[in-house]
């Protein structure tokens, strides 16, 4: 049943006149302004009688006397428990507080018709219970259409002044399921659906440019949302605690996502940041416990991500995600956004990078795989520091610099594929990588920093690949020299060491020197207390640049092994002649490849060589009988 408001008149002041029509719908007339106010029926004592309105109520634009209906009065629908819907015409410009006071009607829909002027709404302050919006708390309505903007007036009490003018007219609704905004809205108002726990659908205006602060805060039943194209801003805490939200297709026009916008969206599994987004605030996805995959779509600009550096390290957009497993990165960020993201397992670059940023994956204790794109020249400082689950990584051939502590304390790391382009390894780059057993420094490396392999507890062998260029080993007062604390048994050295030494390495027992070692700096092996086996593959004794190249006990108790035919030369050479025990060993003699005895050649880092080696140097070989001569077999020098 649809009713149109008729009228009766109550005399309230000298400005008001009274008239009555059919005894059901009541107005307060203001003769001075020629306007009418919808109100409740009064009993004979002047009190509220209530129960006035029934069925589908459509407020007319004009009263029976021709006055414009402009106001819905306070408690207007008092105890109108049989109402089923309400339509508010464009002529209404003001709504008094609690129009549905003490009304248990179950409304299917409220329609606020389109209008240009804002609707003025009074919000009652009921401290300590909170505020009562005109269509919000205690109003049992499932759907509402809002065709105009509104201004809220809140009694000054516990409510802060900043809320005045913006307090939502449907806030705290316990029943609302669907909200539709008219074309007049270019912004979803501040706190529009705050704590509307049953809200499932929001139909935004196609003209919407921004979503205001806390607009859908605590909308715990909303599973998906459709954003209009043209949306540019999602403001602070806009979707905070939307516990059922599982789909979030952000539009390609979005520019800014402010702090905490999707905080505690606990069912959100995947998020894709469009290429249009310029900036993401802090804690945007905090406590999104189901978020597994974070995607940044490919774009041409740097994505600005909120971050700060506390005393314990970085704090950024993704570090508080509890279950994030995969990141697909399509453009650069202004900070290490994945710093200390402890659940991240896989990271893929889908845009060409020129470096891995400082601290990019530092503290990502579950990281297992990184897929590179482009030609990065640098692995940044502490880039993979404390990546405890990283087992193997192959660096792109373009990498020239591994900065300090890049792989510091990666206890599961067994293999790093170092490129031939690498020229510098920074201080402590691989310190405390406990699973290393063998480490090869490529031939193109010019410089290694202090302590690069300190405290690698299972490291047994270091190979310094053949090169005619000298290798600079740095040391400082803060760090030990480059290899001093590397707990190795064996060192393969096939190039000249410049400005560095391995003195005080207390674990090294065996030293192999290839033909590129034509000189040894003084004290390079001094105080290597346990060095007992020295193999020199050069038929010409390398020049010793001082008398303290070796520890005295090495020369007394150790053995020097030289190629066949070179024994006399070593016994006459400076320092070499001081070895008490020198012999010729055929297993390390300078040999040419012999197809009858050698079936395959390998570099010292285990790479197979097709055919015979083209250059002189030290190689691992496989005999014709199939035995690999490397770990426990002989190494050969090929002329």
Characterise the protein shown here.
By secondary structure, the chain is an all-beta fold. The protein has 2 helices and 52 strands. Strands 2, 3, 4, 6, 8, 10, 11 and 13 form an 8-stranded mixed β-sheet that branches. The radius of gyration is 40 Å and the shape is rod-shaped. Mean pLDDT is 84; it is low at 1-24, 157-165, 589-596 and 625-639.
What's this, in brief?
By secondary structure, this protein is mostly beta strands. It contains two helices and 52 strands.
The largest sheet is: 8 strands, mixed
- Portion of residues in helices? under 10%
End-to-end separation: 105 Å
- Give me the Rg, rounded: 40 Å
> What class would the helix/strand composition place it in?
mainly beta
Report the portion of residues in β strands. 25-35%
Number of helices: 2
Mean pLDDT: 84
Number of strands: 52
Which consecutive residue ranges, at least 5 long each, have pLDDT under 50? 1-24, 157-165, 589-596, 625-639
- Which of globular, elongated, flat, extended, rod-shaped describes the shape? rod-shaped
Chart the SSEs and their pairings.
Layout: E1 2-4, E2 16-17, E3 26-30, E4 35-39, E5 54-58, E6 68-72, E7 82-88, E8 94-95, E9 107-112, E10 119-125, E11 131-132, E12 141-146, E13 150-154, E14 178-181, E15 187-188, E16 201-203, E17 210-211, E18 233-234, E19 256-257, E20 270-273, E21 279-280, E22 293-296, E23 304-305, E24 307-310, E25 313-316, E26 326-329, E27 346-349, E28 353-356, E29 369-371, E30 374-379, E31 392-394, E32 401-402, E33 415-417, E34 424-425, E35 438-441, E36 447-448, E37 461-464, E38 471-473, E39 490-493, E40 497-498, E41 510-513, E42 519-520, E43 533-536, E44 543-544, H1 552-557, E45 559-562, H2 567-572, E46 582-584, E47 590-591, E48 598-602, E49 608-609, E50 617-623, E51 628-629, E52 635-638
Parallel strand pairs: 1-5, 4-6, 5-7, 6-8, 7-9, 8-10, 9-12, 10-13, 12-14, 14-16, 15-17, 17-18, 18-19, 19-21, 20-22, 21-23, 22-26, 26-27, 27-29, 28-30, 30-32, 31-33, 32-34, 34-36, 35-37, 36-38, 37-39, 38-40, 39-41, 41-43, 42-44, 43-45, 45-46, 47-52
Antiparallel strand pairs: 2-3, 3-4, 10-11, 24-25, 48-49, 48-50, 50-51, 50-52
């Amino acid at each position: 049943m649809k009713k149109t408001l008729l009228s009766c008149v109550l005399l309230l002041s000298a400005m008001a006149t009274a008239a009555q029509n059919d005894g059901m719908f009541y107005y307060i007339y203001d003769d001075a302004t020629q306007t009418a106010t919808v109100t409740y029926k009064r009993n004979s004592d002047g009190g509220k009688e209530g129960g006035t309105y029934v069925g589908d109520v459509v407020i007319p634009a004009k009263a029976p006397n021709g006055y414009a209906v402009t106001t819905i009065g306070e408690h207007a629908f008092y105890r109108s428990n049989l109402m089923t819907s309400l339509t508010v015409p464009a002529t209404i410009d003001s709504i008094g507080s609690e129009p549905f006071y003490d009304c248990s009607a179950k409304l299917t829909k409220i329609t606020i018709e389109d209008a240009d002027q804002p609707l003025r709404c009074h919000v009652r302050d009921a401290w300590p219970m909170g505020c009562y919006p005109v269509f919000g708390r205690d109003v049992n309505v499932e759907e509402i259409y809002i065709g105009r903007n509104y201004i809220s007036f809140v009694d000054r009490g516990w409510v802060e002044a900043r809320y005045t003018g913006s307090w939502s007219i449907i806030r705290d609704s316990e029943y609302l399921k669907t909200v539709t905004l008219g074309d007049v809205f270019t912004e979803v108002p501040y706190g529009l659906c705050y704590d509307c726990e049953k809200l499932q659908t929001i139909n935004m205006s196609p003209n919407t440019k921004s979503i205001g602060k806390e607009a859908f805060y605590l909308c715990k039943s909303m599973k998906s949302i459709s954003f209009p194209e043209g949306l540019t801003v999602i403001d602070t805490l806009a979707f905070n605690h939307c516990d059922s939200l599982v789909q979030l297709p952000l539009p390609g026009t979005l520019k800014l996502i402010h702090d905490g916008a999707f905080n505690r969206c606990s069912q959100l599994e995947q998020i894709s940041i469009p290429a249009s987004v310029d900036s993401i605030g802090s804690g945007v996805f905090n406590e999104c416990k189901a978020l597994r995959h974070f995607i940044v779509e490919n774009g041409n600009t740097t994505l600005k991500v909120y971050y700060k550096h506390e005393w314990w390290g970085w704090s950024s957009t993704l570090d508080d995600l509890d279950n994030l497993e995969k990141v697909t990165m399509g453009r650069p960020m202004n900070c290490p956004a994945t710093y200390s993201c402890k659940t991240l397992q896989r990271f893929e670059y889908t845009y060409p990078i020129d470096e891995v940023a400082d601290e990019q994956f530092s503290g990502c204790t579950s990281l297992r795989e990184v897929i590179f794109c482009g030609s990065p020249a640098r692995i940044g400082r502490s880039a993979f520091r404390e990546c405890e689950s990283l087992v193997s990584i192959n660096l792109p051939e373009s990498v020239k610099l591994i900065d300090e502590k890049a792989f510091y304390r990666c206890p599961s790391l067994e293999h790093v594929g170092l490129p031939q382009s690498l020229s510098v390894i920074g201080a402590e780059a691989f310190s405390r990588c406990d699973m290393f057993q063998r480490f090869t420094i490529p031939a193109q490396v010019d410089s290694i920093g202090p302590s690069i392999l300190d405290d690698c507890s299972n490291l047994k062998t270091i190979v310094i690949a053949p090169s005619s260029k000298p290798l600079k080993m740095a040391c400082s007062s803060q760090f030990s020299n480059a290899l001093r604390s590397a707990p190795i048994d064996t060192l393969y050295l096939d190039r000249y060491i410049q400005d560095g030494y391995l003195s005080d390495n207390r674990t090294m027992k065996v030293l192999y020197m290839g033909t590129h070692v034509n000189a040894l700096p003084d004290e390079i092996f001094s105080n290597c207390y346990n060095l007992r086996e020295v193999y020199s593959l050069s038929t010409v004794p390398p020049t010793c640049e001082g008398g303290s190249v070796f520890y005295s006990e090495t020369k007394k108790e150790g053995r020097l092994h030289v190629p066949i035919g070179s024994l006399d030369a070593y016994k006459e050479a400076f320092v070499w002649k001081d070895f008490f025990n020198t012999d010729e060993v055929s297993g390390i003699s300078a040999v040419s490849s012999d197809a009858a005895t050698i079936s395959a050649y390998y570099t010292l880092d285990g790479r197979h060589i097709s055919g015979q080696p083209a250059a002189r140097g030290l190689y691992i070989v496989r005999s014709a009988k199939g035995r690999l001569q490397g770990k426990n077999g002989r190494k050969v020098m090929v002329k």
